[in-house]
Amino acid sequence: MADNNIKSMLPETSETTHGRHHIKLSEDSLAKQTTTLNLGPTHPATHGVFQNILEVDGERILHTDPTIGYIHRAFEKIAERRPYYQVTPLTDRLNYCSAAINNIGWHLTVEKLVGIQTPKRVDYLRVIIMELARIADHLVCNSVIGVDTGALTGFTYVFQYREKIYDIWEEICGSRLTTNIGRFGGFERNFNQAAWDKLDDFMRTFPHAFEEFQILLDRNRIFMERCMGAGPITAEKALSYSVTGPNLRAAGVDYDVRVSNPYCSYEDFDFKIPIGTTGDVYDRYMVRNTEIWESFSIIQQAIEKIKDLDPSIYHADVPDFYLPEKKDVYTKMESLIYHFKIVMGEINILPGEVYHAVEGGNGELGYYLISDGGRSPYRLHFRRPCFIYYQIYPEIIKGGLLSDAVVTLSSLNVIAGELDA
Amino acid sequence: MLLMQIDWLFLIEKIGLITIILLISLGIAAYATWGERKVAAVMQDRIGPARAGIFGLLQPLADGGKLFFKEEIIPQSASKIIFVLGPAMFMVTALMTSAIIPWGPSFEVGGRIISLQVADINIGILFIFGVVSLGVYGIMLGGWASNNKYSLLSSIRAASQSISYELAMGISLIALLMLTGTLSLHDIVEQQHGFWADGYFTWNFFKQPLGFFIFLVCAFAELNRAPFDLPECESELNMGFHLEYSSMKLGLYLFAEYINMFISSAVMATLFFGGYNYPGMDWVAAHAPQWLFVLSGVTAFFIKIIAFILFFMLIRWTLPRFRYDQLMKLGWKSLIPLALINMLITGGVALWLGK
């Protein structure tokens, strides 16, 4: 469309005998044997804002035209104008189902750039937070597969336990969904007793509830029929698209950033990587379920390991990056200077280039950071797993039914916030 | 002279009965919505409606009031007459079936035998099938007239679903009719008198268990209830055929669905679970006053109906939904052959026993 006149873009209308306007269809639309169907941007199945323009023959999908960018917020560009610590809230809004992993991933990236060594206790606390986030993320994804197949009960049932995870985070950082948890070098405050109590409560009650959820869906014949064979991804295709996370593991490739490139002392933990065989919706669902149990065991190990460590340590000793205590700010000159420099974002980060990836809730979440010195990143790129999943999505739903497309979308765990950044 | 020939008492009796049944249907449908939300709440570890009245008991009234005062929107590209006709048709067909269901035992007042059945027509079951088949018109017209692709997809799903499942439903009932030898619902209920007679159960469920299960599955499909709620599946078609409806027209669709559930529970209780019959009813008839006997029969019938409604709800909040092709496969490749086999076996056994 060359001209910007909006009126010319609207379909022509013609007056009818009843004095009502009817939309005049274009000539070829009547001859066409297929239907164009807008799945989204506001459709209950998309769980976010993305559009799929489907060409359907009855219920069978012939062609898909996905649109990206409905909630593009230019995070990468904004990050170039912000001090490093102010980038953390931006990462919250990528995959908001597991915001804590994004926060800690960003902190680890900066720590890698400036060379901060964190104490073991900080690592273990971070592992607890990240694995809680993974459980929350997988719970949402798997229960939403249930919702999209029509079983709402499992969803509302396990959501209570996501709330419990949020309660734990609330004790640690004060917020629930977009956590902004932790600081460079550690946490802003130590875990209080309430946080430990809530964690204990979660660890005690969650297994039973999650078993019930699994009984409800895992071997349910209708659920299995719906999920098996829907939206399959072969290992070759997954690798050629650089699919990661549970979606790749469901295709049968045992790649997990926590094992292949251990960060945050993940090498100290003993856990399995579940893999699937066919890469269909059911495999992805089962891989996530198994990962929830593995995450649960990692948290148990971390709680055991922490018991032997000095309970007062919750951050690395890096005064350049970590805010001093408030009482020191009032009484000590160095602390006052550091406080001023950190809050005003005047920390000079040395030039460098670093890539750091963490195993996010739905795949490898990478941060590619270039610093040219100064207060903000020169360039920051988020490697967002959803962006890649959405590229493969049209290919795997083609030829399937409309219902498959909906279930496949939720099983890929595509999250609009992360897709568009 | 014509006026003299009319049995006025008969007319008054029937009009009274129709009014009561209509009110009960609407009341039960309204409280089924409340019940459904409470059942869902219990299953999902929630509280459910609790604000309007004690235990949220006024919730259906609040919902109804809200729907009446909502703005009524008719899409510009919808064909208006059919758009209005859709929900009306759905509601009418939902209410119509209640006319032939025997709600309780007949009783005598002042020499008149009053039967708690609006019309005892000798083709009762055929009437039910006819009306149930008409029910899909309401969905079809509404979805089509909305001029929305999702609605159209939904009404096509609904039409093909009811056509497919009516077949299995019909065949499963043929087996039952071989045993009863009558189409009249009144006679079928009378045959199931009591609970135990001649060394066997009198209720048809015990004579036709397979037939009952086929009928039950088909009833789920005919009602568009989960796991067969494809026409209105909210995750794919955004509520499907009533996507474009607002205000009380939407209310009629939602309401009629619960009336349908109530009526089909009543039909199942009548055909397979003895209607108003209950164990030990002869003893009650001999020892209790007549009004108590009638009341106990009606109560037994309603207990059966409510049990079925609860069963419908439990299933809805437990099972996921079928996919369209799986639904067709189940209907054509499993239920119809199964119903045919059931029919053959029933016929063979009936011949063998010399009935």
Describe the structure.
The complex is a heterodimer of chains A (421) and B (355). Chain A is mostly helical. In chain A, 49% of the residues lie in helices and 12% in strands. Chain A has one domain: Orthogonal Bundle (Cytochrome-c3 Hydrogenase, chain B). Chain A has 18 helices and eight strands. In chain A, helix 13 runs parallel beside helix 17. Chain A is globular and about 80 Å long. Chain B is mainly α. Chain B has one domain. Chain B has 14 helices and four strands. Chain B has a two-stranded antiparallel ribbon with strand order 1-2. Chain B has a two-stranded antiparallel ribbon with strand order 3-4. In chain B, helix 4 packs antiparallel against helix 5, helix 6 packs antiparallel against helix 9 and helix 6 runs parallel beside helix 14. The mean pLDDT of chain B is 85. The interface between A and B is medium-sized, with 33 and 28 residues.
